[in-house]
Design brief:
elongated, 2 strands, two-stranded antiparallel sheet, 192 residues
Length: 192
């Protein structure tokens, strides 16, 4: 026999463990249930008051947010109206500063297009250029048929300017040295 088999057949002796002594609780019957404590009224009132305060705060915040959205919508509509007014005023300003109206007003004041420019040389006070004054009548008609119409001008201003120019054309005589007025657009060569 081998030693492994002999060891397997040998009874194993283990020391006995000592178990601690069990202490038993004495059992006794329940005679009456323990008295139940009454909930205190103050705690209940505090809990209900806290819940009511939270509900009131939420309602107040909802109303404040809703009020702010109405104020924002009102301010947005005011901003839109102000933008439209600004655009209208800018259009009016562009019409007043337009070349057509300025040329018409200049013609009403008697201003004419001068010939070539004259210059004054400061070193010896000599006048360079044509050195003659402009003729009494301009060859440019700012409201004639070749003029570019301006939609920004009001009808009253355009009609008044055209009426004044028609009266000037009928009564005024053109000098022989002036070029022909431009009435039907830009001059172009005639081809056959």
């Amino acid at each position: 026999m081998s030693s492994a088999t002999a060891a397997a057949m040998r009874p194993s002796i283990q020391p006995e463990k000592s178990t601690p002594p069990r202490t038993e609780r004495p059992l006794r019957p329940v005679t009456a249930p323990a008295p139940r404590r009454r909930p205190k009224l103050a705690y209940a009132l505090i809990a209900l008051g806290g819940a009511a305060a939270i509900a009131v705060a939420q309602i107040g915040l909802s109303l404040a947010i809703t009020h702010d959205s109405f104020v924002l919508a009102d301010l947005t509509s005011q901003q839109r109206e102000l933008n439209l007014q600004t655009s209208a005023l800018q259009d009016d300003l562009a019409g007043i500063a337009s070349p057509q109206l300025l040329a018409t007003k200049a013609a009403d004041l008697g201003m004419v297009v001068a010939g070539s420019a004259s210059y004054l040389r400061l070193s010896d006070a000599a006048i360079l250029g044509a050195n003659k004054e402009a003729d009494g009548r301009s060859t440019i008609d700012p409201t004639g048929s070749g003029a570019v119409q301006n939609a920004l001008l009001t009808d009253e201003e355009a009609a008044a300017a055209a009426q004044e120019n028609v009266g000037d054309r009928a009564g005024g005589a053109r000098g022989p040295d002036l070029p022909p007025p431009i009435t039907d657009g830009l001059p172009s060569p005639t081809t056959r």
